[in-house]
Design brief:
Among the domains are: 92 residues, Helix Hairpins (Orthogonal Bundle), CATH 1.10.287; 48 residues, SH3 type barrels, CATH 2.30.30.60. It is α+β, with helices and mostly antiparallel strands and 201 residues long. The termini are far apart. Helix 1 runs antiparallel to helix 2. A hairpin with a 3-residue loop joins strand 2 and strand 3.
């Protein structure tokens, strides 16, 4: 049996080239992953996003980088990238449908943290629940009722319902004319009381 050394060398060279390209893709993905995580962490610190949401966002970014890098590496190594993308899309769709309520609450929580319609320490009312905001988490907003009871409201409910913020209520200002009128009325009442007392004497 004769072995074609030229063909074998060319195959080995092609395999080594594919492996080198795969390693380069992995290195670039690792560097890009680190840069994106650092930028995201700085941006979320500036937005004062809570720690739990920051951790969840970082994990989602890491999972996305891992999935894309894996698909690229498998494509470089000769696997059918179209079939892999189809499989990944089907798995992702099924997973999204399975946890759609969790995702709805998560994205609602991210919106509440970035938009900040209320802050921790504000007194708000959501539907029939009222209390002081203690935390805006990944899935729920925590309230403390006047009876010192902890209330967990799903972020999707907070996002969809009308929220009344009692902390930012505007107190009507007393005008100078009203103050002068009250002072004059008080002075008149005092004078009338003094006159009545003088008559009784």
């Amino acid at each position: 049996m004769t072995i074609d050394t030229t063909a074998l060398q060319s195959q080995l060279a092609a395999i080594w080239l594919q492996a080198l390209n795969a390693v380069i893709v992995v290195i670039v993905a690792m560097v890009g992953h680190r840069l994106v995580l650092n930028w995201t962490a700085r941006a979320m610190r500036r937005a004062r996003v809570d720690t739990s949401t920051t951790i969840l966002v970082k994990r989602a970014i890491s999972a996305g980088f891992f999935t894309v890098t894996l698909l690229f590496v498998l494509g470089i190594l000769g696997f059918n990238s179209t079939g892999l993308l189809t499989l990944a899309g089907a798995v992702g769709l099924a997973f999204s449908l399975a946890i759609q309520d969790i995702l709805k609450n998560f994205f609602s929580g991210v919106y509440l943290l970035l938009e900040r319609p209320f802050r921790v320490g504000d007194t708000i009312r959501v539907k029939d629940q009222q209390g002081v905001v203690e935390n805006i988490g990944v899935r729920t907003t925590e309230l403390r009722s006047p009876d010192n009871v902890q209330i967990l409201v799903p972020n999707a409910v907070v996002f969809a319902e009308v929220v009344t913020n009692h902390t930012h209520a505007v107190v009507p200002a007393v005008t100078t004319a009203e103050t002068d009128g009250q002072a004059a009325s008080t002075s008149t009442d005092t004078a009338a009381a003094a006159a009545e007392a003088q008559k009784k004497r």
